[in-house]
Automatic annotation (TrEMBL):
Keyword terms of this UniProt record: Signal
Protein name: S-layer homology domain-containing protein
All residue ranges annotated as the SLH domain in the record: 191-254, 256-316, 317-372
Originating organism: Paenibacillus phyllosphaerae
Gene3D superfamilies found in the cross-reference section: 2.60.40.1850
Main subcellular location: other
Signal peptide (from-to): 1-27
Annotated Pfam families: NEAT (PF05031), SLH (PF00395)
Length: 372
């Protein structure tokens, strides 16, 4: 189903929901009722030994319910219904992807007795999605949530509501993706770039195809590559290690202060990249594996990896050069001279914009070719 049809169906569904119940003020609006509300398939969530899972990344089904009911919430239409469960040293982190990200202006889940906004670990502006991550102690327990949606569906129809919800997990759906490398890139059985349905006519299509052929990257289980999605520090560390042919380390621990939060699939690659001086931690000693990298950081790390000559007095010739952090201007100039970074509209570098998967692959390809 194409995006236009989906939006039309979603809008129609919302209209039915609104017409089926009295309109309420936005400040205290409860979730609209539906005439034919369906029951959740997993209202009673089985434990399925979910509390004794081995370290790794799993696919996990989940359902949003109307608050304190067994009825599926309208919120279920705003998410990709299969998420991820990352288990590391007994800690469980759940990742779910929200559709209509711009329209979901606020989303909170109960953590430690308070409603808080979960960490955003990935965004895709083109697809209008964002992926959030939060800790879960018990997969058999409901998680209270709250959502605010502001959607101008059409010139004459504004959907402006906020309501309480419950989130439940289907432990019986758990499926191990990988115990060592179950990251966003190894989530597919196919490494055929021709099978990616979302890179046709993309500016980085040839670079993505080449990177796939070299075994540097792969796609997602749904047959997409998601070239415009942001890339995390963890994902880029693995990509760097592969491109530089650094191999892996058998070390299970790192010296970073947040070692417990670094996924197991990253650690074998992280040590060699850090030792090579290409990627470092933050001032507080943390690595922040789930943080995204911006275009400045991407340029600096690739320049270091390529060991390009850097003129400390050089400044790149972009329309927004003054917005590039001074500490990185020489490296960005070197990257520009080497032609390893694309330019945004208006001859802008956009230094603080999140680097995309396509940009990372395109930049890293020069490194891979240099190592071959």
């Amino acid at each position: 189903m194409n995006r236009a049809n989906w939006k039309a169906i979603a809008a129609a569904s919302l209209m039915v929901s609104l017409l089926a119940s009295p309109l309420q003020s936005v400040a205290a609006a409860a979730e609209p009722a539906a005439n034919s509300a369906k029951l959740a398939n997993n209202a009673a969530v089985p434990t399925a030994n979910a509390q004794e899972l081995a370290d790794g990344t799993y696919s996990l089904g989940y359902t949003f319910l109307k608050y304190n009911t067994a009825q599926v919430s309208v919120m279920q239409d705003y998410v990709i219904p299969t998420g991820r469960l990352i288990v590391q040293n007994g800690q469980k982190l759940v990742q779910i992807t929200l559709k209509q990200s711009k329209e979901i202006t606020q989303f909170k889940l109960e953590q430690g007795g308070q409603l808080v906004s979960p960490e955003v670990v990935a965004t895709d502006e083109k697809a209008n999605t964002r992926t959030i991550q939060f800790a879960v102690d018990d997969l058999s327990a409901k998680v209270k949530g709250w959502v605010k949606i502001y959607w101008q569906v059409s010139p004459t129809f504004l959907y402006d509501h906020e309501y309480d919800i419950h989130l439940t997990f289907d432990s019986s759906s758990l499926k191990l993706l990988s115990s060592t490398e179950a990251n966003a890139e190894t989530d597919t059985e196919s490494t055929d770039a021709g099978s990616f349905k979302d890179i046709e006519q993309h500016w980085a299509q040839s670079a993505i195809a080449r990177a796939v052929s070299l075994g540097l990257v792969s796609g997602y289980v749904d047959g997409t590559f998601r070239p415009e999605s942001s890339i995390t520090r963890a994902e880029f560390a693995v990509l760097l290690s592969r491109a530089m042919k650094l191999g892996t380390s058998s070390a299970k621990e790192t010296s970073f202060s947040d070692n417990a939060r670094i996924p197991a699939w990253v650690k074998p690659y992280l040590g060699p990249v850090v030792e090579a001086g290409v990627i470092n931690g933050f001032a507080d000693g943390s690595f922040r594996a789930d943080s995204t990298i911006n275009r400045t950081e991407l340029a600096v790390m690739v320049v270091r990896a390529l060991k390009l000559e850097v003129d400390s007095a050089a400044k790149p010739a972009y329309a927004d050069t003054d917005t590039i952090p001074k500490w990185a201007q020489a490296e960005v100039a070197a990257a520009a001279s080497a032609g390893i970074m694309n330019v945004h509209a208006g001859n802008k570098f956009a230094p603080l914009v999140n680097a995309t998967r396509a940009e990372a692959v395109s930049a890293i390809l020069a490194l891979a070719e240099a190592q071959s």
